[in-house]
Amino acid sequence: MPEAPRQDSRTAPTDEELRRLDTHWRAANYLAAGQIYLLANPLLTEPLRPEHIKPRLLGHWGTSPGLNLVYTHLNRVIKNRGLDALCVWGPGHGGPSVLANSWLEGSYTEKYPDATRDAPGMELLMRQFSFPGGVPSHVAPEVPGSIHEGGELGYSLAHAYGAALDNPGLLVACVIGDGEAETGPLAGSWHANKFLDPVHDGAVLPILHLNGYKIANPTVLSRIPETELDALLRGYGHEPIHVSGDDPAAVHRAMAHALDTALDRIAEAQRAARDQGVAERPRWPVIVLRTPKGWTGPAEVDGEPVEGTWRSHQVPLSGVRDNPEHLRQLEAWLRSYRPEELFDAQGRPVADVLDCVPEGTGRLGATPHANGGLLLRDLPVPSLDDFAVPVDKPGTTTHEPTRVLGDLLAQVMRDTTDRRDFRLVGPDETASNRLQAVFEASGKTWQAGTLPVDEHLDRHGRVMEVLSEHLCQGWLEGYLLTGRHGLFSCYEAFVHIVDSMVNQHIKWLRTSRRLPWRAPIASLNYLLTSHVWRQDHNGFSHQDPGFVDHILNKSPEVVRVYLPPDANTLLSVADHALRSRDYVNVVVAGKQPCFDWLSLDEARVHCARGAGTWEWAGSEDGSREPDVVLACAGDVPTQEVLAAAHLLRRHLPDLAVRVVNVVDLARLLPREEHPHGMSDFEYDGLFTTDKPVIFAYHGYPWLIHRLAYRRAGHPHLHVRGYKESGTTTTPFDMVVRNDLDRYRLVMDVIDRVPGLAVRATAVRQRMADARTRHHAWIREHGTDLPEVAEWTWNA
Question: What is the β-pairing status of strands 485-491 and 463-465?
Answer without folding.
Answer: unpaired
